[in-house]
Amino acid sequence: MNNSGKIAIPKIELHVHFEGCIGPELMARMRAGEKISRPELDALYSFDNFPGFLKAYARVMAALEQPGDFREAAGFIAARLAARGVVYVEFTFTPLPHVRRGLEHGRVIEAVLAGLEDARAAGAKLQAAFIYDTVRQWGGEAAEQSARLAVADMKAGLPVVGFGVGGDELGCPATELQPAFEMAAAAGLKRYVHAGEVGGPQSVREAVEILGASRIGHGIAAAGDPELLAELARRGVCLDVCPTSNLFTRAVDSYEKNPWPAIAAAGVPVTIGSDDPGFFGAWLDEELERCAAAWQLDQAALRGLMVTAARHSFQPREKREELETIVAGI
Ligand SMILES: [Zn+2]
Predict the structure, then answer these.
(1) The CATH number fitting domain 11-323, selected from 3.90.1150.10, 3.80.10.10, 3.20.20.140, 3.40.50.20
(2) Any catalytic annotation for residue 197?
C-alpha cells in the first residue's frame, strides 16, 4: 500500500486542497462529470494560464451538487492518497463557497467524512484532518463566518485542527482578517495562511505577525529577505511549499529555481505539498519524485521532509510523535 514509484516511503501531506484533488479521472466518474464529453473534460484540464485554472476550478465546484457528490469525491481521493503512500493528510477545505451555493454545511462535511470512512472500509490506511479556510477576497465578515464553522465543528468533535485563508493573497488586508483568526485561535485551532506566493515578503510577515500563522502555504517570497527568514526560523514557522503549483501559477519558472532549499538551509522548517494535484497533475509522490530529481534528494532527505511535516502538523504532541515514528521508519 505504501508503495508508489521510486518514493516508497510513508508520506504526510500538509498542503492540499480537498476540491483541488478532483482531477479529470474523478470528474469523469461523478454525476455532473458524466454529462461532459471526454474531449471537453481533457480540454478543461489542459489550461496553461491562471484564468484557465479558475475556469476548471469553477466547473469542479459546480460538479459538487449534493452531499453524495462530496462522499464519492472523498472516497476516491482518500483511496488515491493512500495508494500513493500518504498516511496522514491535513486537507484544506473551504466551506463557504458551498454554503453560498445553497448547500447545508453540516450535510456536506458529514458526507466528506463518510467518504473517508468508505475508503478506510475498503482498506485505505489514511488518517485525515481538516483546516477550514476562508476566501481572502471575500473579506473580514466571510472570514468570521468561516471561523465560526471551524470552531463549531471542532467543538462537535470533528477532525478540524486549523483555520486558514486562501484565495487572492492581495485581496484583503491582514488586519481585516485578524478578528477571525483570533476567534479561531482562542478556541484552540492552529492558524494557516497562504502568503508569499504572489505577494512579497511583507505578506509573509503579516501572516505571522498579524494573523499569528504557525504554518504558511507557499511563503517562498521570504527567500529574498534574510531578516524575515531569521524570524521564521526563530519562531519555528513552517512553510508548506508546492513546487509544481508554483510553476503553474508562474511564481517560479523551474523546479531548479524554486527557493525552498535555500529557505530550509536558513533554518526554516519546510514541507512539500501538492496543493491541487487534480489540476496540476502531480500527487505528493510525483511531487517528491520531481524534487528528488531537481535537487538530488536521497531517501534520507525525503524522509527528513516527512519528519518535518510530522512535527509541524496541527495535531496534538502525542499524535505528532506517533506520525514522526511512522515516517522516520524507526
Ligand atoms: Zn494552497
Answers:
(1) 3.20.20.140
(2) yes
What is the reported pLDDT for 103?
97
- The Å distance, Cα 255 to ligand 1 centre, comes to 17
Residue 84 has phi, psi (to 5 degrees) of -95, 10
Say whether 26 sits in a helix, a strand or coil: helix
Distances (CA, A) of 190 to 35, 121, 232, 314, 322: 40, 29, 16, 6, 19
> Ligand 1 centroid to 330 CA: how many Å?
31
pLDDT digits (tens, 9 = 90+) for 220-236: 999 989 999 999 999 99
Q: Is the model's pLDDT at 143 over the cut of 60?
A: yes
The contacts found for 196-201 with CB under 8 angstroms, 24 or more apart, are 196/169, 196/220, 196/221, 196/222, 196/239, 197/169, 197/221, 197/246, 197/249, 197/251, 198/169, 198/170, 198/249, 198/251, 199/169, 199/170, 200/224, 201/225, 201/228
Q: Which helix (H) or strand (E) holds 13?
A: strand 11-17
Q: Which amino acid is at 150?
A: A
- Half-sphere CA count of 130, side-chain side, radius 13 A: 25
pLDDT band at residue 4 under the 50/70/90 scheme = very low
- Quote the cell numbers at residue 49: 494560464
Is the per-residue pLDDT at 50 higher than 90? no
Q: How far is the CA of 176 from the centre of ligand 1 (A)?
A: 20
Instruction: Using the mean position of ligand 1's atoms as its centre, give its distance from the Cα of residue 69 in Å.
Output: 22
Domain boundaries, the chain: 11-323
Indicate which residue of 197, 206, 286, 324 is catalytic. 197
